[in-house]
Design goal:
The complex is a heterodimer. Chain A is mainly alpha-helical. Chain A is built from 15 helices and three strands. Classes of the chains: A mainly alpha, B alpha+beta.
């Protein structure tokens, strides 16, 4: 693969690719990054089982149908895969041109959340109910928009060959572009998403080659911001309580520390091979709250044990490893930045999600990519996967 | 890295990408490591926590077995009380956490709403009593004294009282059949402590938080068999406490019944007579202290001579064991255990020890025979015996001339034993012994003194044989104090201390002389004396006394008999034994106890009576009365501390006990129909498979009936008691002395 220059400019761009050629030598299908794709599919399928295990007895939320969440998770996965194919079809460069439109739509979405259209779930006012039992979480798409928007701005002059690195003005523009939606999301307040976005911005800046001053400046600003947030009481009580419980889970095992404690008990009791799928007593007894979404990893820990839970981490590792390679190997800085942004996003979100169930990170409402139940986040990660595939597939077209 | 030229990327970006990649992988590595730590290293710990999380136990307590007398009359059983309880889980499901229901319940029960809420709240560090310290899944009892009407109100309107139940439950009861009290023998229960809970956690009979544990007497000794096994149902519950499955269920196993050898009627007679004797003794004047006898405590043991089984065991002062049921009040507790209480919880029959006085002479006699003195030899019974300027007087300084050992027992001659003891002491080397034979001390050990008899009651005391070994260890422990306070020319106490300091570790002539008549530092318990006299009766076997006779399962199907076991034989030959037996019969016919038996209508030809009296001196206190007796079937031993002479204070009571056992009237006629227990109860009571017990009715008060039947007086209580005793004691220390000429006091200076 390293002999990438063996590929000359060809007609295999997605725009012109026909399904007839899909399986031909050097075809689109052949050039896809299969390890990433298979890992993502595997994670989604494991996720569907875990979600099923966590919800089959929860009559109060599954409308009396034990398969309610299972089916929906599979449906979400299917829709997500379609979105991925669409994204590959369009190509990340086409989407670069669509950034203004996407950006505008995203802003409208998150602003709509602040209007009476939005609703509150678990203290986070970040949902839009669109009727028929469906709701959207626009902040998930903001993550993609920020990546694409910043990449567009930062890479424009470098890819054009004008400069070696993005200049200060560009960086400022890019930061501004990211800052606006982040502020709005913070108002929701959806702290977890803001944290992910900060990490995305960091990853994007790093990959863009922007001066170290920016990187460290941003880190410093992040730290100062955190202190300010704390001091100015911008956080709600529930958020402070979560952090306090993280610092000392035994503080109040029946109250704030309850989630963390029960999650840790569930995972710890799994041992090497787990209690067996559908046989976890913590899961059956519904001791862990939000187990099909944010705490889905505890189901894996308890019922599949170290082997199963470890497999999830390994699969995530495969995705992140391959994504990093895609970032490194693509010739265009735009693609590199997009891929790196996605790596930062997935990595942080996975680490935070699993870390909180293991008691090494504070509890925030972030889903585990591909595994957690949740339509919007599922769509978003599959779109991101589509972007990665697109970067890889289109690599030869650059230069 | 090889791609750098191809992508045309600057090294800065490339390096940063590698850094990102490494960072990402190390994050994942961190997760993996933490996962390993939780699941593999600490996994077992969490698994345990998880199982505790979702399994809840509901405990159904086992019904405690009854304690029955030899004929099946319950001495301790359970009564059904209506217990109103609240289920916390049910209450918490209600909108206001059950507040309204509890308030309604309070008004039905006539309690305040606050009181009821306090009973239902869970105990924690911040919550003061009252609160519930059991499992929150266990129904919490609110009252065990609900009336049938209250219970009905609750049960009929069950829909108004969700989570509230009114159920009959078993509560311990000591019914005191025929007014028998048996308190110290039965013992009592009190709630299990935290310490016991944790200690018994992993044994085969773990305690429940709600358990009552036997604290003394039979309740303690047989706690494990009486308690049974609680039924435990383990439910799997979810995080809201909703039951999602029943894991396992063990049905409760009711405790077994303990059949004892106690006869409730004889027990009542023994208790009554002991109390009457003590009351009477308090009316008597003590010449030595110039005040009435205090008679502060006493005990009586009625034992089956051929098995060691206890037919009656009374200890005075006593108490009502029902005081402990349902938790003892602070006031009651103080009356039972406070300094001013005279400790009624003590079972003086096994925990009271004092010098045995002349009742010890059977042991000295055995020792003398062992040492080679002929039982029928001639030994001088002089009025006093002098050793090194010290004069040991015979009782009332009487002089019988040379008499046999048997006669010495009959008339309770002290000087005979003084002489023998002194001679043996000299043979053993005097103050500087050389391989002493110590026949007298050896005999005491062989008779089982100085150690527990092994009765099936807890905390029996050993008594004491003041042999050389004991003297040495006692001196080692006390010499410093003695040497400090002792003065050669000081007061009596100071002089004694001075002497003890000098040679308290040595066996002095006076020590052995005093010892030979059961004085000095000798201590015995009533149960030891009963065991010894029963052994003399049965041909020499020292039985471990037993109260428990059989353990019968609740359904009566398995019967586990407790066989009599012995802890030795008396160290005397058959011949000596029969000679001694004859001498002790002589005590009852022409000796010191004749005025209690042969001279007042005892049918000696039909029921041969054997007795020995004892009056022991205690420094600084009034004399202890001892009376040890036996027939072929029973041994009866009574002692009254600070009560007077052996036959004087205890005699009438013991006689009355025998009268009741055999149905003997004062004129000596035997009415078998009035006999309570002419021969020991051999058969066990029948327990039906449904747990009911066939037992004969016990009259309201066998003790009084017995006295009525003897006297024929309609109001026996006062007249009889006064009559019997007065006749023989108060008016008549002199009469008595005259008639009998020898009481049982000895001097020992």
């Amino acid at each position: 693969m390293s002999g990438a220059n063996g590929f000359s400019v060809s007609g295999y761009g997605p725009e012109r690719a026909g399904w007839t050629r899909v399986f031909a030598r050097d075809s689109l299908a052949r050039r896809l990054d299969w390890p990433i794709l298979m890992s993502a599919i595997a994670l989604s399928l494991i996720g569907s089982l875990l979600v099923y295990s966590a919800t089959r007895n929860r009559t109060e939320i599954n409308q009396g149908d034990p398969y309610y969440f299972f089916v929906r998770h599979l449906m979400n996965t299917g829709i997500g895969m379609c979105l991925m194919i669409g994204t590959i079809w369009l190509g990340h460069r086409t989407l670069r041109n669509a950034v203004p439109v996407l950006y505008g739509l995203s802003l409208m979405g998150i602003l709509a959340v602040l209007t009476p259209l939005g609703s509150t779930v678990n203290g986070a006012h970040s949902w839009i109910v669109i009727g028929g039992g469906f709701s959207l979480q626009p902040s998930e798409f903001v993550k993609i928009t920020i990546i694409l928007g910043m990449a567009m701005l930062l890479a424009a002059r470098v890819d054009a060959g004008d400069k070696l690195y993005p200049d200060q003005r560009t960086v400022l523009q890019a930061l501004g572009l990211a800052a606006i939606p982040m502020l709005i999301v913070m108002l929701m307040p959806d702290l977890g998403s803001v944290m992910v976005m900060v990490i995305i911005v960091l990853g994007v800046l790093l990959a863009s080659g922007a001066s170290n001053r920016w990187v460290f400046g941003l880190l410093g600003a992040g730290a100062a911001g955190a202190v300010a947030v704390w001091q100015l009481h911008i956080l709600d009580d529930y958020q402070i309580a979560r952090f306090a419980a993280f610092a000392n889970p035994s503080l109040d095992p029946a109250g704030v520390g309850y989630n963390t404690n029960q999650a840790r008990i569930a995972i710890g009791s799994g041992g090497l091979t787990g209690a067996g799928l559908f046989h976890g007593s913590q899961t059956t007894g519904q001791f862990v709250p939000e187990q099909q979404t944010d705490f889905v990893f505890t189901v894996a820990g308890e019922e599949l044990g170290f082997m199963g839970a470890g497999l999830i981490i390994v699969l995530l590792g495969v995705i992140l490893w391959r994504a990093s390679r895609i970032a490194r190997e693509t010739t265009e800085l735009y693609g590199t930045i997009v891929a790196a942004g996605i790596v930062a996003w997935f990595a942080f979100q996975s680490f935070e999600n699993i870390g909180m169930t293991l008691g090494i990170m504070p509890v925030t409402g972030l889903p585990l990519p591909f595994v957690s139940y949740g339509g919007t986040s599922m769509f978003a990660v599959w779109v991101a996967l589509g972007l990665l595939q697109s970067i890889r597939v289109q690599r030869p077209m650059s230069a | 890295m090889t791609n750098i030229p191809e992508t045309g990327r600057t090294p800065r970006v490339q390096i940063r990408l590698v850094v990102i990649q490494i960072l990402v992988l190390s994050l994942l590595g961190t997760l993996g490591g933490r996962l390993w730590y939780l699941q593999i290293r600490e996994g077992a710990e969490y698994a345990k926590e998880a199982s505790g999380n979702h399994v809840q136990q509901v405990v159904e307590p086992a019904v405690r077995g009854s304690i029955l007398d030899a004929r099946g009359v319950p001495l301790a059983d359970n009564e059904t009380r209506l217990v109103v309880s609240a289920s916390r889980t049910d209450l918490l499901k209600q909108k206001d956490d059950g507040k309204a229901v509890l308030a309604k319940l309070a008004s039905v029960l006539g309690l305040s709403a606050e009181e009821v809420e306090q009973k239902v709240r869970l105990c924690d560090a911040k919550t003061p009593q009252p609160c519930w310290n059991g499992s929150p899944y266990q129904p919490i009892p609110i009252t065990d004294e609900a009336t049938a009407k209250q219970a009905l109100q609750i049960r009929e309107r069950a829909e108004d009282f969700p989570g509230i139940t009114a159920e009959p439950e078993a509560v311990r009861r000591y019914p005191a059949p025929g007014k028998s009290n048996t308190a110290q023998v039965l013992g009592y229960l009190s709630p299990v402590t935290d310490e016991e809970l944790t200690k018994a956690q992993d044994t085969d009979s773990p305690f429940l938080r709600s358990d009552q544990v036997g604290r003394s007497g039979l309740e303690r000794q047989y706690d494990k068999v009486l308690r049974g096994k609680a039924g435990v149902t383990r439910y799997e519950v979810d995080n809201l406490g909703r039951v999602i499955g029943e894991a396992e269920a063990d049905a409760a196993q009711p405790g077994s019944n303990l059949v004892t050898s106690i006869d409730a009627r004889v027990q009542r007679v023994a208790e009554y007579e002991l109390n009457e004797a003590m009351k009477e003794a308090r009316k008597q004047h003590d010449r030595n202290t110039n005040e009435n006898y205090k008679a502060d405590s006493g005990a009586v043991v009625v034992m089956e001579a051929k098995t060691g089984r206890i037919v009656a065991m009374a200890s005075n002062p006593t108490y009502d064991p029902n005081a402990w049921v349902g938790g003892i009040s602070a006031k009651d507790y103080k009356t039972l255990t406070g300094k001013a209480s005279n400790y009624p919880l003590l079972n003086r029959a096994i925990q009271g020890q004092s010098a045995p006085g002349s009742t010890f002479k059977v042991i000295s006699t055995a020792g003398a025979v062992e040492a080679g003195y002929d039982f029928n030899g001639r030994y001088p019974c002089t009025s006093s015996y002098s050793v090194g300027g010290q004069v040991f007087k015979n009782f009332e300084s009487e002089n019988f001339g040379p008499i046999s050992l048997g006669r010495a027992l009959e008339v309770s001659c002290d000087t005979v034993f003084y002489g023998l003891a002194h001679k043996e002491w000299q043979k053993d080397g005097g103050i500087k012994p050389k391989n002493p034979n110590d026949y007298f001390f050896k005999a005491a050990h062989q008779f089982g003194l100085g150690k527990e008899t092994g009765i099936d009651l807890p905390n029996e005391v050993t008594g004491r044989v003041p042999d050389r070994q004991w003297k040495q260890s006692y001196w080692d422990a006390n010499k410093d104090a003695w040497c400090k306070s002792g003065k050669k020319d000081g007061s009596y106490v100071e002089k004694i201390a001075y002497e003890n300091c000098l040679e308290g570790n040595r066996m002095r002539a006076g020590d052995e002389i005093n010892y030979s008549i059961g004085q000095g530092d000798t201590l015995v318990t009533p149960i030891q004396m009963a065991t010894i006299y029963a052994a003399i009766s049965n041909g020499g076997t020292l039985y471990d006394p037993t109260v428990g006779k059989a353990i019968v399962s609740a359904d009566g199907k398995t019967v586990d008999e407790i066989e009599p076991t012995s802890h030795g034989k008396l160290p005397i030959s058959k011949t000596t034994l029969s000679q001694m037996d004859e001498a002790l019969a002589g005590v009852a016919t022409r000796g010191t106890a004749a005025w209690r038996f042969a001279q007042v209508g005892w049918p000696q030809d039909k029921i041969p009576m054997h007795a020995k009296t004892g009056t022991a001196e205690v420094y600084g206190k009034q004399t202890t009365s001892w009376f040890t007796t036996y027939t072929k079937d029973y041994a009866v031993v009574m002692t009254i501390s600070q009560g007077g002479t052996g036959s004087g204070a205890s005699g009438p009571a013991v006689r009355n006990i025998y009268d009741a056992l055999y149905g003997v009237s004062d004129d000596g006629t035997i009415d078998k129909s009035k006999a309570l227990l002419p021969a020991p109860q051999a058969s066990l009571p029948k327990i039906q498979t449904d747990g009911t017990i066939k037992s004969p009715k016990v009259s309201k008060d066998p003790a009084k009936e017995q006295r009525v039947s003897q006297e024929g007086a309609p109001e026996p209580d006062e007249t009889q008691a006064a009559g019997t005793v007065q006749q023989n004691t108060s008016t008549n220390r002199d009469t008595r002395r005259r008639r009998r000429r020898r009481g049982s006091r000895r001097m020992c200076t």
